[in-house]
Design brief:
Elements lengths: L7 H22 L5 H4 L1 E8 L7 H10 L6 E4 L5 E6 L4 H15 L3 E9 L1 H29 L6 H30 L5 H31 L5 H34 L2 H34 L9 H7 L1
Antiparallel strand pairs: 1-3, 1-4, 2-3
């Protein structure tokens, strides 16, 4: 049988190596917030020639006008650009559009123009955080009740939430690195992807834990670590195949062929759901074993001391 739990600390280290770079980028550059959360203006403009200029050229023009915090996003339509900037009133928008028309010798039409205040973004973010916190508490209570027939049922719910936090950290690391190198931003669409990842993440953990619960009565004479490892192996094929066949291939196709407007959303979902499956097998259940065996008591002791104690 595959010994997954025997390598649990390698999986912990692997996750840490994936998360740490994003944390470092976050600490240096901050979270790449879009105007949805920090406030600003957004314009969708079209060029009558049917071909929009290169993004960098438009960015340089805004920079010449003294606007440095700007994001130029292409769309599936080659004649349309979406431009996000700090707050700009109608006069300032008109001036910048005239500058664009002069520089690129093309007629520009403002398709949509809108502004978002930072208080609106903060309210949305706080409500989303509150919703996640309430959902996490509900998961712990539900799992504790559903698993009440086995010892330490509370631990299963807590481990599911810890693994969910792991998946959120993976997604945040990805978006921070994407923000630095590809211009990604944390916007309302990102929030939608993150909440979807959280939902799928908890579901995956429940599937694995439910098999452990079933085997606890059937294989109760087995040591806990072997029982959990056996349960993981039993659900391994189902978890991977179900995720790949029903979600991951679809998201991969969407990321590759769905156009630039959906690419960031699809990639975040792709990585987030993959992380959810990974953490269900290699993070949540191993944490449960570490907790059951209280292994943290020997983390900072030498091997000689552990042998003497035992």
């Amino acid at each position: 049988m595959i010994d997954i739990l025997g390598k649990r600390y390698l999986f912990f280290i692997l996750s840490l190596l994936i998360i740490l770079p994003g944390i470092i980028v976050w600490a240096i550059n901050g979270l790449p917030l879009a105007i949805d959360f920090k406030g600003g203006s957004i314009m969708e403009i079209s060029f009558d020639s049917g071909k929009a200029p290169v993004n960098t050229e438009v960015f340089e023009l805004y920079k010449e006008q003294g606007i440095t915090d700007v994001q130029v996003q292409p769309t599936a339509d080659e004649s349309i650009l979406i431009i996000r900037t700090p707050f700009m009133d109608e006069v300032a928008q008109g001036d910048i559009i005239r500058a664009v028309e002069t520089k690129f010798n093309d007629k520009v039409t403002i398709r949509t123009a809108d502004s978002v205040g930072p208080t609106v973004g903060q309210e949305v973010a706080s409500r989303a955080a509150l919703a996640v916190a309430i959902a996490a508490l509900a998961v712990v209570l539900y799992v504790t009740y559903a698993f009440r027939g086995i010892p330490h049922a509370f631990r299963y719910g807590v481990c599911a939430i810890i693994a969910m936090i792991h998946d959120v950290a993976i997604v945040m690391s990805l978006v921070n690195i994407g923000g630095k190198y590809f211009g990604w931003q944390v916007d309302s669409l990102f929030l939608t992807a993150l909440l979807t990842v959280i939902g799928f993440s908890v579901q995956d953990k429940i599937v694995v834990f439910d098999r452990i619960r079933e085997n606890s009565s059937i294989l109760r004479r087995l040591p806990f670590e072997k029982l959990v490892n056996h349960s993981i192996v039993q659900t391994l094929q189902r978890s991977i195949n179900t995720q790949l066949m029903t979600v991951e291939f679809m998201l991969l196709a969407l990321a590759l062929f769905g156009g630039v407007t959906l690419r960031e959303f699809a990639v975040i979902l792709l990585v987030g759901l993959l992380s959810g499956t990974y953490s269900s097998i290699f993070i949540a259940a191993p944490i449960l074993v570490v907790w059951e065996k209280k292994e943290w008591k020997t983390w900072f002791t030498s091997s000689k001391t552990r042998v003497t104690t035992s």
